[in-house]
Amino acid sequence: MTEPDAHDARAAVDGDALPSAADAGVAASAHAGLSRRALLGLAAGVGAAGVALGAGAGAAAGVAVGRTRERESAASVHDFFGAHQAGITTPVQDHLHFASFDMMERTERDDLVELLQDWSYAAARMTQGLEVSASGAVGGSLQAPPDDTGEALGLAASGLTVTFGFGPTLFQTADGVDRYGLAAQRPPLLEALPAFLGDDLDPEHTGGDLCIQACADDPQVAVHAIRNLSRIAFGRARLRWSQLGFGRTSRTTAGQATPRNLFGFKDGTANILADDAEALQAHVWVAQGDEPHWLAGGSYLVARKIAMLIETWDRVRLTEQQTIIGRDKGAGAPLSGGDEFTTPDFTGADAAGAPLIDARSHVRLAHPDFHDGNRILRRGYNYVDGNNALGRLDAGLFFLSYQRSPEQFTSLQRALATDLMNEYIRHVGSGIWAVPPGAESGSFVGATLFA
Question: Is residue 410, in this structure, part of any structural domain at all?
Fold first, then answer.
């Protein structure tokens, strides 16, 4: 990856200014960017995780050919360090690579800490447009695999953010084993999501001890991040499942236009925005008084892979599509009138007395007015994974939401049980993770858990 143009960004994580081994508590051999265990993992990087991510990188590279970017987008740089992890309130980028990992058997607490340190070190560099270590893709020995895979050489940071989360099974396995002495630190609210009406979950796309959300305005940059973090994890964690996403389906800043999902409707009109500090404190960030103390400043992440029955939807009349959603397909305005940002009037009726917005429409069932003001912050993406065995598009929404409590999501999802849209969607993947607060400069994500 190319060095950032901005002098302050370069100074933050360039060369010796990067988090040193002493700063982060990493082994001395990590000064080049990776611990000895990680370097050994790179040398043996033909394992399952490396192979699986390699295929995704090739696909993303093909998509990247001939693409054009706005100069500002390509040069955008977000600091890895801070009170909160980047990738939550950060302006939503255009592309996603999400990955879930399981810790390997016979790993110990020190292995987990070392992995988080190594991941944080590499992520802090990549988010600044640098390679994962000082020697990188071409600066090391010709007789050893390079530290960096190299497909992002010459590319800018492109707004890359890397966000880490801890699943329930990291603290205690399903059969009650406390592998890393963390059971007492498990957030009381961090439980596997309950079954919801209409779930058709694939176990191979559900759960995980750890997760990484990589978002960027260049798909190759996002894939590069996950690919290299997977290589660094070799011998300590293995890839459980992953998902590529494109075309954001939400916005987190007022300057972003509301995007459309694959049903063609504007999505995320009423999302919590980054400048709404009051809403973020109330609905997104875990507070100092919440339990456990180490999670203060963090959040809870829910991921749902939602398959859309595209071909069926495409044969539905426009008026029925709008009734199902509760909004005008073109302008995005509620069917009660106004523009996209007009507050829906759920009491309005037409001349025949029928409600303008159907009681089972998605807009009504999901509206905060019917959930005691409960809100979530969304960062969803469209996905298309080719076609299925029936020759239909394997496509849909990769839903990501951040909330102060998982109950915010579960109560909302239960309320959607009668949603008219359920006829055209299937929930096929799922997961929940506690997202720790941001790392202090020189430290690592999750340090508060081990303090």
Answer: no
Read off the pLDDT of residues 385-421 as tens digits, 9 standing for 90 and up: 999 998 999 999 999 999 999 999 999 999 999 999 9
pLDDT tens profile 174-212: 999 999 999 999 999 999 999 999 899 999 999 999 999
Q: Does 29 map to a domain?
A: no
User: Which pLDDT score is estimated for 268?
Assistant: 84
Which residue did the predictor score with more confidence, 4 or 38?
38
Other C-beta atoms closer than 10 Å to the C-beta of 416 total 17
Res 138: pLDDT? 97
Range of the domain at 177: 70-107+156-308+431-450
Structural domain contains residue 138: no
Any domain includes 85? yes
Number of domains in the chain: 1
